[in-house]
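Budget justification aside, the reviewers requested a transparent look at the raw inputs and outputs of the sequence design task funded under Objective 1. We therefore reproduce one unedited record. The lines immediately below are the structure tokens for a 124-residue chain.
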């Protein structure tokens, strides 16, 4: 290989792609509920919807505070873990970060678009 890339680096790069997808899928799975609560809060603040808290055990104020805080924790964990994976795999940032964001948000989008499917696999 004329560009100085060894077979070990290539093997590490290709083995890190599945790890990136799995790690972001797990983060997205456990982060779906906080992200949806945060999206509900944003929609309410923008005047796009009025959330229905009738089935909630906690007060709406608690949910409004927990959503953004839990989402910030999910995004912080996402950024930290993906930075390490990006450096370990020596990926092109052009492909790594968009793929990571798509995989992270896929469970939340599934829960939003297909709640019947999400209820079958949801953890909460």
């Amino acid at each position: 290989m004329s560009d100085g890339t060894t077979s070990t680096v290539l093997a590490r790069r290709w083995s890190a792609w599945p790890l990136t997808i799995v790690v972001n899928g797990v983060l997205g799975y456990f982060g779906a509920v906080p992200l949806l609560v945060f999206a509900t809060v944003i929609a309410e603040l923008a005047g796009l919807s009025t959330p229905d808290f009738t089935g909630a055990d906690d007060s709406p104020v608690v949910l409004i505070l927990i959503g953004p805080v839990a989402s910030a924790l999910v995004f912080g964990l996402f950024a930290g873990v993906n930075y390490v994976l990006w450096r370990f795999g020596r990926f092109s940032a052009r492909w790594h970060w968009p793929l990571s964001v798509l995989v992270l948000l896929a469970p939340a989008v599934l829960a939003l678009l297909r709640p019947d499917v999400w209820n079958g696999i949801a953890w909460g």
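The CA atoms of residues 1 and 36 lie 47 Å apart. The two ends are 50 Å apart (CA to CA). Computational costs for records of this kind are itemized in the attached budget.
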